[in-house]
Amino acid sequence: MASGDDSPIFEDDESPPYSLEKMTDLVAVWDVALSDGVHKIEFEHGTTSGKRVVYVDGKEEIRKEWMFKLVGKETFCVGAAKTKATINIDAVSGFAYEYTLEINGKSLKKYMENRSKTTNTWVLRLDGEDFRVVLEKDTMDVWCNGKRMETAGEFVDDGTETHFSVGNHDCYIKAVSSGKRKEGIIHSLIVDNREIPEILE
């Protein structure tokens, strides 16, 4: 290439996940915490062109051009467990639209409220790296940084322990009865014999 004006900004193998003309019709962004991580969902809605584009973690999942019906819904999957997500597009008044996200058929708010009852989440730093550990209480599956962990359950005097490893660190989730019916079972993450505080998502 003779002139600097003609050279591409990015080489083919280094192109960014987003094109430069993208995101001109961005109308909604949601962060959704699932067992395999926090996923960013972005929605473009071109009300003059009829365009609908859904991105999950920067990757285009749905693209529809020239949709004459400006209201409706778009359904797609999120995360390793292929969790069902739906964006509802409703007319509010005139040319104003409302966008709502449903996860597994529930509003995002309801889903997250329910999720806080069915999962425990811990964030910790080991060997200079951040880890996000999630326990799904209904299945006792343990996830770490997006991967389901191999676990071994063990009954102990005051409850159960679910053992797994992160790198060369021994970890287990201890489940003990709170002694109170409303609280139920209390889950604690122990890494290298040290308890890790839980975070609320």
UniProtKB/TrEMBL annotation:
<keyword id="KW-0053">Apoptosis</keyword>
<keyword id="KW-0963">Cytoplasm</keyword>
<dbReference type="Pfam" id="PF06905">
    <property type="entry name" value="FAIM1"/>
</dbReference>
<comment type="function">
    <text>Plays a role as an inducible effector molecule that mediates Fas resistance produced by surface Ig engagement in B cells.</text>
</comment>
<dbReference type="InterPro" id="IPR038513">
    <property type="entry name" value="FAIM1_dom_sf"/>
</dbReference>
<dbReference type="GO" id="GO:0006915">
    <property type="term" value="P:apoptotic process"/>
</dbReference>
<comment type="similarity">
    <text>Belongs to the FAIM1 family.</text>
</comment>
<protein>
    <recommendedName>
        <fullName>Fas apoptotic inhibitory molecule 1</fullName>
    </recommendedName>
</protein>
<dbReference type="InterPro" id="IPR010695">
    <property type="entry name" value="FAIM1"/>
</dbReference>
<dbReference type="GO" id="GO:0005737">
    <property type="term" value="C:cytoplasm"/>
</dbReference>
<dbReference type="GO" id="GO:1902042">
    <property type="term" value="P:negative regulation of extrinsic apoptotic signaling pathway via death domain receptors"/>
</dbReference>
